[in-house]
Amino acid sequence: MQTRIEVGILGATGMVGQHFIRFLQGHPWFDLRWLGASDRSAGKRYRDAMTWHLGVVPDTVSGITVDDCKPGHAPRLLFSAMDASVATEIERAFAQAGHIVVSNSKNHRMEPDVPLLVPEINPDHLKLIPGQQRARGWTGQIVTNPNCSTVGLTMGLGPLKQFGIAKVIVTTMQAISGAGYPGVASMDIVGNVIPFIGGEEEKMQQETQKILGDLRGDHIEPLTARVSAHCNRVGVVDGHTETVSVEFLSKPAQADLRHAFDSFRGVPQERALPSAPPRPVIYMEDANRPQPRKDAERERGMAAFVGRLRPCPALDYKFVVLSHNTVRGAAGAAVLNAELMYSEGMLD
Amino acid sequence: MQTRIEVGILGATGMVGQHFIRFLQGHPWFDLRWLGASDRSAGKRYRDAMTWHLGVVPDTVSGITVDDCKPGHAPRLLFSAMDASVATEIERAFAQAGHIVVSNSKNHRMEPDVPLLVPEINPDHLKLIPGQQRARGWTGQIVTNPNCSTVGLTMGLGPLKQFGIAKVIVTTMQAISGAGYPGVASMDIVGNVIPFIGGEEEKMQQETQKILGDLRGDHIEPLTARVSAHCNRVGVVDGHTETVSVEFLSKPAQADLRHAFDSFRGVPQERALPSAPPRPVIYMEDANRPQPRKDAERERGMAAFVGRLRPCPALDYKFVVLSHNTVRGAAGAAVLNAELMYSEGMLD
Amino acid sequence: MQTRIEVGILGATGMVGQHFIRFLQGHPWFDLRWLGASDRSAGKRYRDAMTWHLGVVPDTVSGITVDDCKPGHAPRLLFSAMDASVATEIERAFAQAGHIVVSNSKNHRMEPDVPLLVPEINPDHLKLIPGQQRARGWTGQIVTNPNCSTVGLTMGLGPLKQFGIAKVIVTTMQAISGAGYPGVASMDIVGNVIPFIGGEEEKMQQETQKILGDLRGDHIEPLTARVSAHCNRVGVVDGHTETVSVEFLSKPAQADLRHAFDSFRGVPQERALPSAPPRPVIYMEDANRPQPRKDAERERGMAAFVGRLRPCPALDYKFVVLSHNTVRGAAGAAVLNAELMYSEGMLD
Amino acid sequence: MQTRIEVGILGATGMVGQHFIRFLQGHPWFDLRWLGASDRSAGKRYRDAMTWHLGVVPDTVSGITVDDCKPGHAPRLLFSAMDASVATEIERAFAQAGHIVVSNSKNHRMEPDVPLLVPEINPDHLKLIPGQQRARGWTGQIVTNPNCSTVGLTMGLGPLKQFGIAKVIVTTMQAISGAGYPGVASMDIVGNVIPFIGGEEEKMQQETQKILGDLRGDHIEPLTARVSAHCNRVGVVDGHTETVSVEFLSKPAQADLRHAFDSFRGVPQERALPSAPPRPVIYMEDANRPQPRKDAERERGMAAFVGRLRPCPALDYKFVVLSHNTVRGAAGAAVLNAELMYSEGMLD
Q: Tens of pLDDT along chain D (348 residues)?
């Protein structure tokens, strides 16, 4: 039997860190052994260092003594759930010290030599790593996954890239779990919609262009499509629902798009990576699906659910896409990135 | 003191009928005296003919004996809250019999000789009436107001029509009160989003073009803009929130649009109609407004609230608009229509 | 390997029927082969006979041709999810015809010769069966499980019965999934509480006395405790939360009660029945637990979660209990009943 | 015309302070002129000193310069919305300096010489004031209103006090607005119930005994009834719903209780105080009422709504009571206290 790889989590006490812990339970390759957090938590047992928000603290981590987020005792492979206010320096310090930092934080996503991965769509962007290491003098590396609202959009658009994407207008209806804890005040969201999420629209617009962009030598040529996002918070616990209108350079038939969704498979599926859903994009026939409370948890939260593909009177076609924001949009995305890297021999 | 005008309601026992009753309480011009409903209710006292959903049945209607929906005893001016399954024939019969039918039903909205009014935007569409009466041989008439989701969109677009609207993409997040009673099952909407409302997108697209269209002689030339709607239901009680992206034929500056919102006034404001809000479109400065639970009830539910005007990377500009779906999107809309007609001398 | 037992469902197209189907997926003993429903559905494939509300219809039942609810082709062991309006006659007809009817319906629960089971608490009530068969001339039999709100209460009280229960006052905050589909209108429950559920309080009061009652020869002597229920509906999807105050005949110390909760095990645990939770009652230490959205799904929805045990200034002690209304309160309860019967040799 | 009385608010920037400001808009007697807050806010215009959560900041206060919470420039009559962490000292300092402090804070409620008022129930408790002033050497005074969950209970029990209350068991389902801002995290309450509110049960139990107690010379003899509270938070915006079981010393008929609710009037009604509802307790006949979203706002939020009076199998009778937690349970309660004091000549 295969040797399991020791892994750790940077920022293990926050909500995203907790999602990492939950998602890694029982992982066949990765063995969670190390938990890093702020000085305030360091030295405490994990169970005493945080308030757990996801049911019951798993026994496997409950008694681990939290370390501080400085290189030293951590395993080589680290998942980063660092808060944006501190992630820049800490992730760099670990990469500098030889660690493979697979990060969910936004801080390094848009740097030209940092892969921003959706493994089904742009696995070749991992080829930025040698340049990253060379330019920065790192023995380690930083690899990132997209913002939770970007993941669903790019998984919906990925299969359609072949038709030449010219314009995209997306409106999100985002779950509260994406905002951490305590996050959104109940007085703001019960029976309400908040039509604004700070910085979210810019992230969706830029990240989508990078993810759907093409590797040209040692850099990414962003997709030239014009992408516009309207981001909203709604009173849903898990699952971001997005309405999407797209204009294409070619003029594909609706059946072509539908076929593209149905037949879409990527490297994670070919290699049957442990966290890869059998089909990354699942088209739902019912007129009123996908729906976050009913569908987001399916396929272990790792697929994107698409529905309502139809002509758009203003652009060419429109559809709905749903993905699980704390799984495929955070912890699960990073773990799938690491699985892809493992399958590439990059963790050897 | 002015003589008050007797009015009645067709379809008085349903949810929309109840909203009419509530909205007409204390109206300075219109005196609600007659309530029509199906044979099942006719002959009963109103309080025994329905289950009231809006607090407490007003005393002024509680004891009225419900009539059936046949011309005979009804006053000349009637507000129609008829269900779409029966509105076509019944509204026609009343118009034939000389009644002025101010309808919230969808049935006649898209007929070429029926005004589909937003009084601030297209009051001149009332000039279709003589042709309607002539062509149909009616002494009465039918005038309609838009679907609840169309109202907010057209009030947001009305001030911008001057810049030449080429394309519109709108995503709605609609309240449950728009679906009547029992309407949406709680199992479908608690903590959920339903990305589909049957027939709603087509209504929004077509009605918007008609309302923003121009009267040419005896017919309406629809706005040539391409309009695309994505309609969603969310767990909000009252108030439809809509994100809107617009492409213009001219290239206005953002400040021009903002000025257009702020300075927008229509005939209802000029004539200070009783149900007209002082400003039909209210721009909110806060980045996270408007919000349905906090704003929809303001201005007695008769204004549209706009916010977040900003450039759209895919079209030209984008913004958020909110309106109260059962007030400005239903009962209040019809009453304002009747007030406009009164101010035109059409009720004399 | 053991032979699996063929089972069927009476009332398979409704919400409770769907919960049975989902709960029986992958069951080690019971093999779901037969689905019965009304004449309207009979003859159709299952997938065409209903609207599925629980994610995706399992492949194992999707293609089964629905039968009508008359004895003939059904397997001997049947789970009944019949609507109360028809359950009385249909369940009797099947019992008459030799079927073992394990019913979730309320109709026969309070009949003196019908066991109303919570397998951890009153497994000996199965001894009513011979008398039932004799008196009614049946070769089959009817066994029932409690109402969804009764289950949590009795599982909370069961461990405490030894201290002599004199009075119980319970207030429920019940999930909407307990009301079926379409069930509760969203306009009635979004951001609201409904302080009334028709017939629920009477059921809780009577069923609790029967379940906690003692088998005396061939009948059940109900618990003499006075039980009072206040039943409310809240905007929760799954999980009934109940606050309970209890007066005891003896005067146990708080530690005695706590020990009773912690050490409570029943026949299902001793025999490791497939659907039995390892611990039927789980006491949670955190001051603000149990909570329905966070805890109801744990232990596959089969345990009762208790918290906040403390003195009651008016009676003796008070606590909170939570249980999953569609699992332990419906389908899971009936399946556990059948497992208990199997382990008793009653299905041979 | 009567001279209006200048009033101020201690703690004007928090949620309770905002509720005071809103409730005092257009008050016929009290003229809001002064706003006090922490040093952090002092010196700023009110609109710049806080984030307003209740629609739009009223013009009448928007431009007022916030003062710090030290005696000096404040008017004689002050409403206190101070946070409990600072209210003790600050309220004392103002009372010492001659101010009449009508406080919503919990800090002084249970002190023996401080009136804890529900004006319809125990207006005579104001007679504690001379003793309070004498004992403490104050020229001013402190008067308090109950906790938001206590108000509904005591208004429901007040009319029944005549029958001799022996035991009370109450379960609350409390709105999120009672927790201030940001208050309850949305992740904790969307689709959930939290069966715990820190300190709430103790407050309800003790305050109820004091309010329903009798003035004996210079002190209050608490009601000897044993009161037990179970406090829960639910996803409701405004309005606390409470289920109540009561045991009486006498054995009144159900009709006696009903008559007591219907005929209940107090000093505020007799004197037609501006904020007094015509009937303080409104009994609702419908089996499923009162409900918070549908009823709490009625009567300007100042009445208690009672329903479902019926026998309790464990105690004697049970019923449901609803009251508006931020109006009758906070700002409105304090203003009604001040109106009572005015009508007693205590503000001269």
A: 467 999 999 999 999 999 999 999 999 999 999 999 999 999 999 999 999 988 889 999 999 999 999 998 999 999 999 999 999 999 999 999 999 999 999 999 999 999 999 999 999 999 999 999 999 999 999 999 999 999 999 999 999 999 999 999 999 999 999 998 999 999 999 999 999 999 999 999 999 999 999 999 889 999 999 999 999 999 999 999 999 999 999 999 999 999 999 999 999 999 999 999 999 999 999 999 999 999 999 999 999 999 999 999 999 999 999 999 999 999 999 999 999 999 999 998
- In angstroms, rounded to a whole number, what is the distance separating the alpha carbons of residues A106 and A92? 13
Strand partners, A228: A169
Q: What is the Cα–Cα distance from B275 to A203, expressed in whole angstroms?
A: 43
Cβ A230 vs Cβ A128: under 8 Å: no
Among residues D28, D247, D217, the alpha carbon closest in space to that of D128 is found at D217
Structure tokens given for C310: 């403390």
D226–C313 CB contact, under 8 Å? yes
Instruction: Identify each DSSP E strand in D223-329 by its residue range.
Output: 226-234, 240-248, 281-284, 304-311, 317-323
Query: With 0-12 CB in 10 A as exposed, 13-18 as middle and 19+ as buried, what is B311?
Result: exposed
* Residues C295, A191: C-beta atoms closer than 8 Å: no
State yes or no: is A69 an active-site residue: no
Q: Would you mind telling me the total number of residues written for chain C in this entry?
A: 348
Which residues from B are below 8 Å from C when comparing CB atoms? 53, 176-177, 181-191, 235-237
Cα B15 to chain center, whole Å?
15
CATH numbers and ranges of domains, chain B: 5-147+331-343 (3.40.50.720), 148-324 (3.30.360.10)
CA distance from start to end of chain C: 16
For A176, the closest of D176, D187, D236 (CB atoms) is D187
- HSE at residue C162, side-chain half, CA atoms within 13 A, is 13
In angstroms, the Cα distances linking A30 to A25, A82, C91 are 9, 19, 53
Q: At what angle do helices A200-211 and A148-157 cross, to 10 degrees?
A: 40
